[in-house]
Amino acid sequence: MRMSDKLKSIAGEGGDGWELFLRARGMIASGTPVTELTIGEHDIRTAAPVLQAMHEAAKAGNTGYAIMHGQMTLREAVAARVQARTGVPTTYENVLITPGGQSALFAAHIASLDNGQTALYMDPFYATYPGTIRAVGAVDKPVPARAEHAFQPQRADLEAAINESTRTLLINSPNNPTGVIYTPETMQMIADVVQAHGLTLISDEVYDTQIWEGVHISPRSLEGMADHTLVVGSMSKSHAMTGSRCGWLVGPADVIDKLVDLSTVTTYGVPGYIQDAALFALEQGESFEEEIAAPFKRRREVTLKALASQNILTPVPTAGAMYVMLDVRQTGLTGEEFANRLLDERHIAVMPGGSFGNEAAGHVRVAMTIEDSAYEAALKDICSFAAALA
Ligand SMILES: Cc1ncc(COP(=O)(O)O)c(C=O)c1O
After folding, report:
1. Do 32 and 158 fall within a single domain?
2. By CB atoms within 10 Å of each CB, which of 6, 204, 342, 354 scores lowest?
3. pLDDT tens, 46-93?
4. Is 204 in the pocket of ligand 1 (CB under 6 A)?
């Protein structure tokens, strides 16, 4: 069968960045124990009461076709959470329930780009961004957020990237992979640029409950931005529900309303029993979200302490999310070489920074996603590996 160029373009020419992860999984499958610090998934599973709510909902018969926009109760709960966190008036009409944040990212780009138009995204970036943009028929264009600027986007770089075909800018704060949170000044600058050029801002906020330092500002709350911003949210990271595939897109009511057409021809909504479980999880409030985030907060402290006693690996000053990025350039290796040798020689899997764009090359991303003592031991091993190289 002849495959479309569009399908072939999704992963991109240099692969999609998951090669090391797949190699580590291959080693594990063939019996080699590997300490996995690669993907952003909790070591805890979905909480038992949330599973119970899911089970009850399914048993009660919420197993039929779901309502495409999402169940009203869940849309209202998400709207209330968004309003409480940002102060922006938000109703169910501003909320589309999607199968995870990834689906919301796709919906946001479908909603705002026509074929051949250009979509900007900050580099370093979550690995699916360029493929998502190409999948909707748009042109993906990375904008550097450089290590020397602590990975904060700069106005000059944004301005230099924008031309007459540019329609959207995708940002992610707290950021995967860097762990950086955009400062209030950065967010205001982004809002100014977006408004000056008539762009749509797509703000991926799936890590909004993982804030270790400073504050997270949702750009939708900045003056004049509610009409120009689509916010991506998800139950995956905040409520340890990665496999349940439940997220949302928040934006102007007319756009959200029209996006039902996309749900109709793609996902046909999110299963009702999953939405009931998500509603139950949201109803547990902030203390539940803090409980889910607590292990990463602890491990971040462990990370900073372990790295303070050496001077070869430099951590990017992280403020949020479940990752820490390490600058490995003093070892003389690239991020890719470091990660591959660490896997072969110490059986520890971390992601090469290059999987997340050019600006993260020379770094590796460590996911703080295994139990505390194993995590601490792995970090010490990474430090001793780096010391031996240097
Ligand atoms: C920045 C970012 N956005 C979106 C997603 C997608 O998450 P999900 O589709 O599970 O909600 C992820 C997952 O790792 C992510 O890191």
Report:
1. no
2. 6
3. 999 999 999 999 999 999 999 999 999 999 999 999 999 999 999 999
4. yes
